[in-house]
Write a structure and sequence with these properties.
Elements lengths: L3 E4 L2 E4 L4 E7 L7 E8 L6 E6 L6 E3 L7 E6 L4 E6 L8 E9 L14 E2 L3 E6 L1
Amino acid sequence: QVQLVESGGGLVQAGGSLRLSCAASERTDSRYKMGWFRQAPGKAREFVAALSRSGGRTYYADSVKGRFTISRDNAKNTVYLQMDSLKPEDTAIYYCAAQEAVTSSSLLTALGYDYWGQGTHVTVSA
């Protein structure tokens, strides 16, 4: 099974940017659809963005649309989440997830994913 390791989190001021990385233990473009989720203290895990296996389709939560961009570098087995115009409400633990491409589960819910990383903390100060 694929192993996922997130990095790139940290503390940033409101209006700033961060780029999160999700390094996979194997190529993801041939086998997995990828997603990013986040969980703020005391809240449920929520969908942020997702990417089809080919990379041709992207999906975003309304709360991040226009500010966040999901992408993948197949040569590096890495998926990225570029986060711009950050807001304090973006503060959360961000998780990378992979869904087996052969499944038809929703990409917008956590239950649809098969593998998860350990998460990386993002704190946005006002």
